[in-house]
Amino acid sequence: MHKLVVLYPKPADPDHFRDYYVTTHLPLVTRLPGLLAWRYSFDVAATPGQTPYFAVFEAEFADAAAMTAARASPQGRQVAADVANYATGGAVVIHYPVQYGIG
């Protein structure tokens, strides 16, 4: 499995971010080809102290090739272009292959 994580610093207008993200951006995300699962939260906390992030998004793909194909697809380009419509604080995008532990 390959995971894509987007970390969002605090936007200029948190209410607009929340509303636009849920009603407009996430429906675009659900159309990504090869997307296996996704989740998000506006309740990002840090231990200890203040978090530098307002929101987090996680997406799961079968592998890095599936994620790359999804991001390069017309739907992926539309998702990427839409970020400027709500994320005035920018976005940090990371991705990695998931390693599983036993426990």
UniProtKB/TrEMBL annotation:
InterPro entries xrefs: Dimeric_a/b-barrel, EthD_dom
Coiled-coil ranges from the UniProt annotation: none
Domain EthD: 11-88
Protein name: EthD family reductase
